[in-house]
Amino acid sequence: VAEAMNAQNHSGLLLLYCPVTQAILLSSLPDHRLEKALRALLSSLNRGGGFEYGCVVGAPVDSLNDLPQSFSSAGSLWSRRFLYASGDLLWYRDMALEADDFNEETPQLAEQIQEALLYNRKETISDLLHRWRDHFIHLQSDELVVKIAYSNFMQQMLSSLAAKYPEITGELTDSQSLLKHIYLARSIQELTACLENRLHAIADPLSMVLPEAQMLRAVDFIERNYMNRLTVESIAQTLHYNSAYFGRKFKSYVGESFQAYLEKVRLEKAKRLILEGYKIYQVSTLVGFSSVDYFAEKFRQYTSLTPSQYRQQHSSGAL
Length: 319
Description:
- The chain contains 15 helices and four strands.
- By secondary structure, the chain is mainly alpha-helical.
- Strands 1-2 form a two-stranded antiparallel sheet.
- Strand 3 (about 55), helix 3 (about 65-80) and strand 4 form a beta-alpha-beta unit.
- Helix 4 packs antiparallel against helix 5 (about 120-140).
- The longest helix has 22 residues, at about 145-165.
- The model has no long low-confidence stretch (mean pLDDT about 85).
């Protein structure tokens, strides 16, 4: 470490103490300059091969007598290095994490992820896993605790999927290969990415082999895009169906035609917007109708009230 520091002429860094496996540095540099210097030092050291060097920065102190406090904060953070990006600088400020509101129990998490798999919502899967990861970071959980939680969760998830949907059994639901990756992971970020990749890989074949999953995706797509111009043909193409076949399957699944279901979704959204105080022409546009008159007529047929009458009758109750 001393040789690398001398070679790069790091002013502002002093090698204070060097036991067998550590080099303890002292610095009075501001954070931005210290970070630059330490990253350059780490890069130089790790290019040498043979060892992997890491670095942790303790909290700043005002006097040399308080150095043990800085060393202690650095040691606490180093003991939890699994929770941070492998090979990165760890800073005292990383310990001051915001409380996370993710408090789902594992069964609820599994249920939410299975639902996201059926809908092929990869972004939702990633979001749930990232929030779960951040929850462990906030708790400053031990590495083994995290790995046991992740492995138990994935074993239960994959076993449940294999039992419910034998069409996707095989490598995608093989928990043994996944467990190996889990216990060899060097950071919680690497561990989360491993689970994320496996679940994303399951989402596509699962949604393709299960007819109900395809219809769930269609319903979900309408719920999310009702304000846009949607047709049987456009959604059938998205789901790789013949439009006529898709139209029949959709009607069989939801109990009404695609157009009737789309209008119902739009009108239900319109009811909420009307009570929120939007003008009628604004509501018509926001829910996807191209004509205010057509919207008003459809709304009257659906509710037996005009949009204005609906607002008058329900606004007091909504408040």
